């Protein structure tokens, strides 16, 4: 698996901290490893409270924007929520739609078509919405770079409330005459609007959670509008009940958009996941039922790998407006119909993804991009589905641990690209450095999108690879596996699994704990398992304790994993439930053969 293991050293204070927290020393050590050192912060982490949510007025731009929306509601102005076509944008649109409707507003939604219109607020759509009588447009999960479209709305007398969390455009810096050094960073180029809500908006107070997602921003704005309408520091009881329901949607956006699950984001995810199971939102219930998860206790895995792909399938394979309809206006029958359709689209997406991945891997080899010479990967071809290339880019990053951009060349000769990154490489800023070869681009540190002319693909690839080689040291291309501590098989029991679960929900910035278990003996012949025969079931033995394990994507090691062979394992303890039986097992995240 070729990963460098970094095993956390034991912390002397972990035992005493564990006694005060009434938890295991291992959990206390993991908290310390992750920078949660104060006892009060540890208690908040293990038992988060809604009181840890920041007041919405702290989010830059919220007060004037909430007041403008409240004024539109009171004046029965036509409000259009302009969303993005991914899970974050879909759930953000649904949150604000339900909030405005509950408060008595006249509200509709609009979502651009991924292929025909592309990402973000576009000029044609803005003109159309103005023609149709919109008096206020609210963007969600997009808009902070939409300078021209906002200007069009202004010229028509239509206000635009921009809510976003993506990177802002900046003007290029020039060397100073005196020193030859770069000038201070230029001010962001923002749309001309009095109503911009963004966690990193310059010139205003710093928001404590700079990594809140689009759905989180929408949730905070909805909360503030509720307070504005109520005329007090508290919202009405019906609106408070709605906010608790809306946390389920905010959790979906937060987890699906892979923002760090720490601080406020973790609170939104934790309480939102708790709301999903018992949600009364018609569309969300239909989505859960389509994934056969009705009645299940859901965690970030269910959202990231089962629910989010179904919502994303609408925008990837067709039009995301169906997913927005399911979560906003659909009745039970219509919601079920849409959820079933999304299930079909998701299966089609999986087939399309496999086909593109096979072609992409061949191109990586043909272009020699898997060699140490290159620190990034840029691939492109005609016929690739623009809605799927982002997922394939993630697969390529998983395989080669290099920033990757996939570009689908359309029939008109333009290329639509989607990129994914690795730690230490800011993708949006890298595209800023290649802007002369692009029609447009945007995104954030770990994911971004772009458009270019097909004939520019080769020159863009060369420029991007040069930038990556300058920024990324060779050692950054070797993936690291951080292990949270040492353990033995005899210590891996159900109590430990439950204790570790208190650290969830898991995701970006708060990964699942992985433990190091050395000198484990293989006690029997491994079994090849899984539909595609890529995984192994192992039988482990250590100091008299035996245990089953599953080693994902390790079937190619079958010939080396003979009984009696000793290995060091990186493991995640789990509980396997089957036919009413519960048994502690481990997932092997990596293994190393001992000398």
Structural shape: globular
Main β-sheet, in a few words? 5 strands, parallel
CATH-defined fold name of the largest domain: inorganic pyrophosphatase (n-terminal core)
Number of strand elements = 20
The largest sheet has its strands arranged as 3-2-4-5-8
CA gyration radius, whole angstroms:
25 Å
What's the CATH C level of the largest domain? Alpha Beta
Structural summary, described in words:
- The chain is an alpha/beta fold.
- It folds into 4 domains: 9-45; 57-169 and 190-342, Alpha-Beta Complex (inorganic pyrophosphatase (n-terminal core)), CATH 3.90.1640.30; 367-477, Diaminopimelate Epimerase, Chain A, domain 1, CATH 3.10.310; 481-595, Beta Barrel (OB fold (Dihydrolipoamide Acetyltransferase, E2P)), CATH 2.40.50.460.
- The protein has 18 helices and 20 strands.
- It has helices spanning 14-21, 25-33, 39-46, 62-74, 87-102, 123-131, 147-155, 214-230, 237-256, 263-276, 282-290, 300-317, 321-328, 332-366, 389-400, 427-432, 457-471, 494-501; strands at residues 4-7, 78-82, 106-110, 136-140, 159-163, 169-170, 188-189, 196-197, 377-382, 404-409, 414-420, 440-443, 447-453, 480-483, 515-522, 527-529, 535-542, 545-551, 566-578, 581-593.
- The strands form 5 sheets. A 5-stranded parallel β-sheet has the order 3-2-4-5-8, sandwiched between helices.
- Helix 15 (389-400) links the parallel strand 9 (377-382) and strand 10 (404-409).
- Helix 6 (123-131) runs parallel beside helix 7 (147-155) and helix 14 packs across helix 15 (389-400).
- It is globular and about 75 Å long.
- The model is unreliable at 174-181 (pLDDT under 50).
